[in-house]
């Protein structure tokens, strides 16, 4: 749990929302936050961690069971785990190659499992939970409706509007997330479930800063980082907005000091501060180097 999700968690806790954090592990800064909010105190929000592999659908379902046990129900779901096409699951390192952990006979890419399939399944599970809350007949959480609304917030990217030879699977996943969000727009007026998302630019998180192969795309003299807190604030806006500007199906793009609604058609695309990666095309040379290796793609 890092970056955007950690900042989002802080904002929720500060606004007195209980939070269940589901991830493989907690980094020290996230563990410190959970520890400081772990104790039951009257009128104070709590944070609970549950070790979760988001590619395991049973474990995803278990997070709802834990949240119900700990907090009495679920109102907001954010499938926030994501990876930026690491070498272990990357189009340019095919299954079975020395860098890939994707199996030749596996029938799946880990990067798609995490970035696309997991958010889809988590959203599906959330809708089922909202429509069929446990113990609703015994004073528990009530079924979702326009008068009793619930929220799902997904994390897309400006990659969902652009192209990038370096990370085609990541780009495909984020295009998919945008289409998925928009396809569910009608759920809010009909059943009370608002599903929308944020599309950050270049975020100063460990997904970039701890991976030299990605960090090399950024020119500190020309590019600007978007801070995770800016994205988290846009996520909260998606949850609480009652003006109709950020309704179901909306994708909010977040740059450095700028946030705007991404239009479904004829959108001009991301531009300006926090959206540029000056050395992106330089990375293409590495792709062609890999393709030039003898037997690329053969196992």
How would you characterize this protein structure?
- The mean pLDDT is 92.
- The protein has helices spanning 3-14, 28-36, 57-71, 110-131, 168-183, 187-191, 206-209, 212-215, 228-240, 284-291; strands at residues 19-23, 47-51, 76-77, 150-155, 193-200, 251-255, 258-261.
- The radius of gyration is 20 Å and the shape is globular.
- The protein is α/β, with parallel strands linked by helices and 299 residues long.
- It has ten helices and seven strands.
- Belongs to the short-chain dehydrogenases/reductases (SDR) family.
- It comes from Clohesyomyces aquaticus.
- This is NAD(P)-binding protein.
What key attributes describe this structure?
single chain; Rossmann fold; two-stranded parallel sheet; 7 strands; 12% strand
With strands numbered from the N-terminus, the spatial order across the biggest sheet is 3-4-5-6-7
Question: What fraction of residues sit in β-strands?
Answer: 5-15%
Topology-level CATH name: Rossmann fold
Low-confidence stretches: none
Overall body shape:
globular
SS elements, strand count: 7
Helix segment count? 10
Largest sheet: 5 strands, mixed
